[in-house]
Recover the amino acids of this structure.
C-alpha cells in the first residue's frame, strides 16, 4: 500500500543528509518541517516536503494530519521482553524494605526469572512475549533489541533467542538479538563462576553462533555478578564468533567496565547510573554509545544516569527502556523520553534525538531507522492533535499517539 500524509503540523527529525548519530551540542538541534507532506511507497519513505510545494500524487491512500505531529518511531536499543511470568512479589518485597541486591542474594532476581523460564515451553514463552511486543508497537516502538539472559542453561538461552527471532519475523519489525548468557551465576554453579563461564563461552556461544541466533554479546559487569576480567573473557569469546559487545555496566558500582567496553569496541555501554570522570574520558573519541535507562532508575529508586553531564561533555546519548520483569516492567518509550527530560534534564530535542537516531545507532540500524530520510523505513508515529512536540514529554502521563505506521503499514 502507498500512503500520502498531508497537512502535517510539524514533521520531526528530518535528516536530508543521512547521519548515524548525534553528539554533544548537536543533540539540542531537532530539524523539522512545519506544514509538511510525506509520501510512503511500500515500506519506505519516498519523499517529503512543505505543503506549499507538494506535487500532485495519484493512487495513494491519503491521511490528513492537520494539527498532528509526525516523527520517526522510537528505537528501543535495550530490552529483555522475552521472559516468563513476572516478579510482582519482589516489587512488594522492595516496598517493604528489601533492596534489589538483597533480593538477588536471597535467590530472587534474575535466577528467579530463569527458573520460571526454564519451566516454560517455547510456545508459551512466545505467547507471553508477543503480548509485550504488540503493546510496545502500539506505544510507538518501531525497532527493538531483545536480550537472552533469563535462560542460564544452553537449552533455555537458545529457546529465548529463537522466540526473539520469531517475534521479529512474524511481526515484521526490526529485531536485533543479544546473547546475555553471563547475566547471573545460576545456582548449579554457585561456587564455580568460572565453570559457568566455560559453559557460556565453550558451549552456548558456539551453538548460538552456528544457528545465527545473536547479533551482539552482552554481560552484566557488576559487583556480585561478573568482574572486569570475566567481561574481557566473555567479550573476547563473543568477538571470535562475530558478535559485537553491548554491555550492562555501572548500574550500582564503578568497577572499570566502561573502559573495558570501550577497549572491546562495544557498540554501546548501558545503564551508567553511576559514572565518573574517567568513564567519560574513556568514552570520548570512541564509537561506543552511552545508553541511559531512566525507567529502571524510576522503578528501582536508584540514581538517574547523568545524561546532562554526558551530553555536556560532547558525547552522544541514547535512551532505551530496559523492559524486563525485575528492574523495569515497562516498555513505554514515551515515558522514557519524558523521564529523561524531567529527571535527567534533557531538553525535548535531546531526548527525541536520543530515542530515535541514537537508539538506532545503538543497535546498528541507523542506516534504515531513526530519522525521516528518503529510503529509510517508513516507521512513523502520528500524534493526536497537540500544541507542539515539547508537549510529548510535558504531558508525561497522557497517550499522545493516534496512529503508528510500521514498514509503511498502518497498525
Ligand atoms: O538491565 N541489570 C541487569 N539486568 C537487568 C535486570 C535483571 C532483572 O532484575 O531481572 C537490567 O536491569
Ligand atoms: Fe538490561
Amino acid at each position: 500500500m502507498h500512503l500520502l500524509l498531508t497537512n502535517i503540523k510539524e514533521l520531526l527529525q528530518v535528516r536530508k543528509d543521512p547521519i548515524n548519530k548525534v553528539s554533544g551540542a548537536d543533540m539540542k538541534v531537532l530539524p523539522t518541517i512545519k506544514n509538511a507532506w510525506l509520501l510512503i511507497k511500500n515500506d519506505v519513505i519516498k519523499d517529503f516536503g512543505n505543503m506549499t510545494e507538494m506535487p500532485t500524487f495519484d493512487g495513494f491512500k491519503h491521511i490528513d494530519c492537520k494539527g498532528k505531529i509526525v516523527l520517526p518511531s522510537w528505537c528501543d536499543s535495550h530490552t529483555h521482553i522475552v521472559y516468563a511470568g513476572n516478579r510482582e512479589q519482589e516489587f512488594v518485597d522492595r516496598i517493604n524494605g528489601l533492596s534489589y541486591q538483597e533480593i538477588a542474594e536471597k535467590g530472587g532476581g534474575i535466577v528467579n526469572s530463569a527458573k520460571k523460564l526454564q519451566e516454560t515451553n517455547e510456545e508459551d514463552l512466545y505467547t507471553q512475549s508477543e503480548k509485550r511486543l504488540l503493546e510496545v508497537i502500539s506505544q510507538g516502538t518501531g525497532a527493538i533489541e531483545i536480550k537472552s539472559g533469563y535462560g542460564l542453561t544452553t537449552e533455555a538461552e537458545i529457546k529465548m533467542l529463537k522466540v526473539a527471532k520469531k517475534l521479529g519475523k512474524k511481526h515484521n519489525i526490526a529485531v536485533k538479538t543479544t546473547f546475555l548468557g553471563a547475566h547471573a551465576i545460576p545456582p548449579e554453579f554457585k561456587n564455580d563462576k568460572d565453570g559457568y563461564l566455560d559453559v557460556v563461552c565453550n558451549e552456548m556461544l558456539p551453538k548460538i553462533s552456528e544457528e545465527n541466533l545473536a547479533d551482539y554479546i552482552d554481560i552484566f559487569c557488576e559487583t556480585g555478578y561478573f568482574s572486569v576480567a570475566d567481561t574481557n573473557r566473555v567479550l573476547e569469546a563473543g568477538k571470535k564468533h562475530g558478535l559485537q559487545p553491548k554491555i550492562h555496566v555501572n548500574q550500582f558500582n564503578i568497577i572499570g567496565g566502561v573502559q573495558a567496553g570501550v577497549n572491546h569496541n562495544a557498540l554501546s555501554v548501558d545503564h551508567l547510573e553511576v559514572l565518573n570522570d574517567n568513564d567519560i574520558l574513556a568514552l570520548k573519541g570512541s564509537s561506543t554509545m552511552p545508553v541511559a535507562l531512566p525507567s529502571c532508575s524510576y522503578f528501582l529508586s536508584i540514581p538517574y544516569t547523568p545524561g546532562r553531564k554526558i551530553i555536556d561533555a560532547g558525547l552522544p546519548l541514547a535512551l532505551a527502556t530496559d523492559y524486563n520483569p525485575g528492574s523495569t516492567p515497562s516498555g513505554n518509550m514515551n515515558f522514557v523520553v519524558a523521564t529523561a527530560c524531567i529527571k535527567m534534564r534533557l531538553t525535548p530535542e535531546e531526548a527525541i534525538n536520543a530515542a530515535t537516531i541514537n537508539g538506532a545507532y545503538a543497535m546498528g540500524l541507523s542506516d534504515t531507522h531513526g530519522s525521516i530520510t528518503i529510503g529509510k523505513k517508513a516507521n512513523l508515529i502520528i500524534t493526536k492533535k497537540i500544541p507542539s512536540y515539547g508537549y510529548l514529554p510535558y504531558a508525561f502521563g497522557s497517550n499522545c499517539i493516534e496512529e503508528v505506521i510500521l514498514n509503511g503499514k498502518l497498525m
About this structure: The pocket of fe (iii) ion (ligand 2) is lined by residues 78, 80, 248, 322, 324 (CB under 6 Å).
